[in-house]
Amino acid sequence: MVFVLLVTPLLLLADVEIPDIPWFGSNPSAQNMCPQTKALHPRAKKAANVLNSIDSPEFLAQAVGTLSGAVKIRTETFDVMGKVGEDPAWEVFGTFQTYLQGAFPLVHEQLKLAKVNTFGLVYEWTGSNSTLKPILLAAHQDTVPVNPATIDEWTHPPWSGHYDGEWIWGRGSDDDKSALVSILLAIETMLLHRVKPQRTVVLAFGFDEEVSGRQGAGMIAPYLEQHYGADAFAMLVDEGGGMVEEYGALFAAPAIGEKGYIDTRIEITTPGGHSSIPPPSQHTGIGILSQIIVLLESNTILPRLSRSQPIYDSFKCVAQHAPGIPSTLKRAIEKSTDSERALHRMEEMIFADNMIKSIVGTTQAVDMIQGGVKSNALPEQSWAVVNSRISTDSTVSAVKSHYTSLIKDFAITNNVTFIAFGDMIHDRGSLVKIEISDAWGTALEPAPVTPIDAEPYKLLSGTIIATESRGKNDTDAPPLYVMPSVMSGNTDTRHYWNISSHIFRYSHIRMTDGTGIHTVDEHVRVTAIVGMVRFFVNLLFNADEAINL
C-alpha cells in the first residue's frame, strides 16, 4: 500500500515542469545522502540447505497449496462487530486456526502457542540463548470484506484461491495472508531441516487489523509486554512497503513510521420547530454546520517538509541512486541537506503533486454528514465527521488546537456556545451549541520514527539486498537500494510501540507482483510468495547470527 501513496507519485514529478535553478551548486556530501548496507548472507551451513529447498518445484507446489487453502477461508471483518465470545461472526477464525494446524504440523508440534482473546495467535520458537533479545514477526488473519455487488466482476471467485499457473486469486491472497503463510512456511521449512535458533522468535497474528485491531493486536500487545517486558524485542517486522522500480533503479521501502489519525465530530444543536418559521439568522443547524465546514476547508493546516520526516529520507535515496530523476529536483534535494532555501524549493517542487503533498502534511476530509429528519421540520441536531491523517512531525493536540481556534472565532462572532473536546470554550447560554469531539475515541498519535542508523535497520537492509541478489556471486541481479518510507495508513504496529523501538513495516514483494488489495480481483504471483519465504528465512538466520542486534 505504501507504494501507491509514496513511491509511485515520484514518477508523476517527471510530468511536472521544474524550472532550472542556477543558484544550486553541487554538494560534496550528496554521495552520502543514502548510505547502503552490503548484502548480508547467512553464514550457517543449514541456511544454504533451507534456501536450496525453497527453490524446488515441490516447495512451489506447497506454497500454492497452503496459500490457496488459506484464501478459501472467509475471514472478513466488519466495522460493526460485537466482542469475541458474543458475536458469532468471529467463529470463522477458529476454522482458520484449525487449517493452520493441519498446514504447518511441525510449527504446531515444536513451537509454543498462546491464544490471546481466543483468536489472537502468539507463537514462540524458543532460542537457546536467553540473553539475546527476541525478534517479532507480525501478520493478520483477517481481510476486508468483499462487496456482494462486485462478486460477478471477479475473474475468479473471491474465496476460490484459484491458481492459474502463475497467480493465486482471492480476497486476502496479498493482504495479508501472503505474509502470514510465508512466515509459517519459512519456519516449517527450517524445522524440517532441524534448525534450532539461539535467538527466540515470536510470531503475533492478530485477527481484526482491518478494523483497527483492538480485539486482536490490541490484546496481544499487553500480553507480549507482560510476558517479555517493555522494549523487549530487538526488532519487529509487519506488513508494509515493498519493492518498486523508480527512475531506473529498484528500491525496497520499509516504512519506519506511520501518520497519526483522528476523526473529529462536529455537532450543532439548535431549537426545533416548523420549517415555515426559520430562525432569525436564517441559518438552520445544517446551515451553521455548512458554514463551519467551509471554514475548515478554507483554512487547512499548511503542509511543511522537514528533514525529520521519513519521506525526506526517501527523496534523498531517490536523488542519490535513481539515474532518471529530473536533474533540477536532484540538485535541490542534494543542496537541501544544508540549505533552508533549497529545502523550501524542494518542497515547492514535490508539492506540485497533490498526493505527495498529502503524504507529507496533515490532511483533512469531511467524510460523513447528517442532519434533519423531515423536510418541514427544523433540524435539532446536525453533525459531520472530519477525518485527519496527522503528519509524522505533528500531534493529535495540534490538530485539536487548530480546529478549536478556528471554530472559537466563529462561535464568538455568532454569539453561540462552543465546547471543544470536553472543554467549555465559549459559554453564552444560548440555544445554539457547537460541540467538537473525538468521534469514536480512537485518536492516534503519529508512530515513533524508527532510527535508520541502528543495527536493526542495517540488518533488515542487508537481508533485503541479499534476498534479491540470491547468490553471493550473482552479478545478473538488478541493483537494489533500500530507502526508508512512511505509511499514511496504520497497521497492527500501532499497538506495539511499547515492546520495540525498531518497528519496520515491510512486505518483500514487488508492486507488480500483487494487485487488487481492498478491491476486485485481488491476486498475487506465486513466485513472489516464494521470494517472501526466502526473505523470512534469510532474516531469521541473520538475526540469529547477529551480535549487536
Automatic annotation (TrEMBL):
<comment type="similarity">
    <text>Belongs to the peptidase M20A family.</text>
</comment>
<protein>
    <recommendedName>
        <fullName>Peptidase M20 dimerisation domain-containing protein</fullName>
    </recommendedName>
</protein>
<dbReference type="Pfam" id="PF07687">
    <property type="entry name" value="M20_dimer"/>
</dbReference>
<keyword id="KW-0862">Zinc</keyword>
<dbReference type="GO" id="GO:0004181">
    <property type="term" value="F:metallocarboxypeptidase activity"/>
</dbReference>
<feature type="binding site">
    <location>
        <position position="238"/>
    </location>
    <ligand>
        <name>Zn(2+) 2</name>
    </ligand>
</feature>
<feature type="binding site">
    <location>
        <position position="140"/>
    </location>
    <ligand>
        <name>Zn(2+) 2</name>
    </ligand>
</feature>
<dbReference type="GO" id="GO:0000328">
    <property type="term" value="C:fungal-type vacuole lumen"/>
</dbReference>
<keyword id="KW-0645">Protease</keyword>
<dbReference type="InterPro" id="IPR017141">
    <property type="entry name" value="Pept_M20_carboxypep"/>
</dbReference>
<feature type="active site">
    <location>
        <position position="142"/>
    </location>
</feature>
<dbReference type="GO" id="GO:0051603">
    <property type="term" value="P:proteolysis involved in protein catabolic process"/>
</dbReference>
<dbReference type="InterPro" id="IPR047177">
    <property type="entry name" value="Pept_M20A"/>
</dbReference>
<keyword id="KW-0378">Hydrolase</keyword>
<feature type="binding site">
    <location>
        <position position="175"/>
    </location>
    <ligand>
        <name>Zn(2+) 2</name>
    </ligand>
</feature>
<dbReference type="InterPro" id="IPR001261">
    <property type="entry name" value="ArgE/DapE_CS"/>
</dbReference>
<feature type="binding site">
    <location>
        <position position="518"/>
    </location>
    <ligand>
        <name>Zn(2+) 1</name>
    </ligand>
</feature>
<keyword id="KW-0479">Metal-binding</keyword>
<dbReference type="InterPro" id="IPR011650">
    <property type="entry name" value="Peptidase_M20_dimer"/>
</dbReference>
<dbReference type="GO" id="GO:0046872">
    <property type="term" value="F:metal ion binding"/>
</dbReference>
<feature type="binding site">
    <location>
        <position position="175"/>
    </location>
    <ligand>
        <name>Zn(2+) 1</name>
    </ligand>
</feature>
<dbReference type="InterPro" id="IPR036264">
    <property type="entry name" value="Bact_exopeptidase_dim_dom"/>
</dbReference>
<feature type="binding site">
    <location>
        <position position="210"/>
    </location>
    <ligand>
        <name>Zn(2+) 1</name>
    </ligand>
</feature>
<feature type="domain" description="Peptidase M20 dimerisation">
    <location>
        <begin position="256"/>
        <end position="409"/>
    </location>
</feature>
<dbReference type="Pfam" id="PF01546">
    <property type="entry name" value="Peptidase_M20"/>
</dbReference>
<feature type="active site" description="Proton acceptor">
    <location>
        <position position="209"/>
    </location>
</feature>
<dbReference type="InterPro" id="IPR002933">
    <property type="entry name" value="Peptidase_M20"/>
</dbReference>
